[in-house]
Amino acid sequence: VLDPELLLMDEPFSAVDPPTRAQLLKDLSSLLSQNQRTTVIVTHNLAEAAQVGNRIAVIINGELSQVGTPQELRAKPADRSVEEFLKEL
After folding, report:
1. One domain for residues 2 and 15
2. Together in a domain, 3 and 40
3. Alpha helices (H) along 36-89
4. 26-74 tens-digit pLDDT
5. Alpha helices of 36-69 — where are they, by DSSP H?
6. Contact yes or no for 29/51 (Cβ under 8 A)
7. Range of the domain at 30
């Protein structure tokens, strides 16, 4: 419980005001890079995903459309729907 191999976070900052969210994201990024722990964060905020994630899974209509680094997703979207989805990234 205190040292899980996998950490799952479902919309962890969705109900937090923007300044607090920014600080929590900064703290989480630092913590994750120090601990080297596999973490799955579910979010609908692409900027947030790009800030803390080194790999992003894009799920559209319940289907896994593409997995890659933020740079890979921007450079070569798998298809038009992924390209449209990533416009805000």
Report:
1. yes
2. yes
3. 46-52, 70-75, 80-85
4. 999 898 888 888 899 999 888 889 888 899 999 999 999 999 999 999 9
5. 46-52
6. yes
7. 1-53
Residue 87: its pLDDT value, please? 85
Q: Residue 34: CA atoms inside 13 Å, Cβ hemisphere, count?
A: 6
Quickly tell me which residue has 């990234």 as its tokens. Answer: 89
Distance CA 49, CA 36 (A): 17
- pLDDT for the residue numbered 37: 84
Task: Compute the distance between CA of residue 29 and CA of residue 63 in angstroms, rounded to an integer.
Answer: 27
The pTM of the full predicted model, rounded to 2 decimals, is 0.79
Residue 15 has a CB neighbour count (10 Å cut-off) of 7
In the predicted structure, residue 89 carries a pLDDT above the cut 80? no
